[in-house]
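Reviewers asked in the last cycle whether our approach scales beyond single polypeptides. To address this, we selected a multi-component target totalling 294 residues and predicted its structure end to end. The input consisted of the following lines:
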Amino acid sequence: MPSFNFDIGEKERAGSRFLSDVRDALQNALATEKSQRKITQQQIANLLGTSRAVINRQLLGLENIGIKRVAEILWAIGWEPHFEVRPIDRGVNELSRPQIDKDGATEKLASVQLPSEKREKTASALTEARKGFQQGLPSSDQPTRSLAQDNAYFDRDRIANG
Amino acid sequence: MPSFVRFLEELLPSAQTGILEATESPAAQMDTLLRKWNAGKPMAYRRVFSNLRPKGRGVWEMKTADLRIFGWIYRPKVFVATFAGFADDYKSQNGNPPKESYDDARERVIWIRDRLEVDSPAFVTGDYDALI
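The resulting structure, written as C-alpha cells, was:
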C-alpha cells in the first residue's frame, strides 16, 4: 500500500503559510472592527484610493498583497501591524542555522537528518492509521483503483441501488 | 479516506489555479487549509467551511479558492475528508453547466459514510463553533 505523501516543500510552505497568517490577522482585525462599528470594504477602499474589488481580492488571497498594503488596510480600520522575526529552532527546518563553536568551525548539521526521520515516522504512522481505518471500509472504497475507476464505481453502484 | 488521499497524491501536485487566479497554488492552498484545521484555528463559516443542503444530511465542504473537500463531521472537531475536487468544476462557466454537482457530491459522501461500520452516530450536528 502506498504511503500518504503530501508535501509542497519547505520554501513554498514558508511563504504560503506566512501569507495565510497575515491574511488571517487582517481578516480577524476587520471582523473585530465590523462587530464594533459599521465599517465596509468600500470605505477602506475609498480611504486607500482603490476599489472594493481589489481590497476584497487581496483579503481573500486572490491578488498579491504587499507589506505596504497590509499596513494601509490596518491603518484604514484604526489598527497597526506588529511584526517580529525569530530564528527557527534547530532541527525543525532543513535550513535551520548551524551552530558555530568557539573556533568558528561549523558543527555538522545532524539536524538536517531529523526532518526526514520525522517524515518517515509520520508516513509510517499514517500508513498504520490507514490500515486500521480501511479494515472498516467496504471493498468498493479500497484504494486499489484510479480516481476515474472510483468515480465510475460510485455511479454504477448508485444507479443499481437507486 | 482513500479517495481524498489519491487526490492529494495524483492530482493536486500538478494542479494550477483556476478562474479566480489565486496567488497561491492549489497545493499551497491545501497545505494552508489543513494546517489551519489541524491547529484548531478559526474556520470562517461559509467562506472556508460550509454545510451542504439539506443541512440535516450532515455533509460539509472545506473550501479554498480552487479546492473543494467534501466529507462529514464524525465527532466535534473530527472531519472525515472523503474526497476532493476543483472548485471550477462546481461552477458554471461561459454559460455551460458545471461539470460536477453539489448534489452528487453530497450523495457520494453519504454513500461512503453509510458503508463504513463506524460507531453510531455516523455524524454529528449542532452549533457551528462546537462542531468546527
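Residues 2-131 of chain B form one domain. We regard this as preliminary and will revisit it once experimental data from Aim 1 are available.
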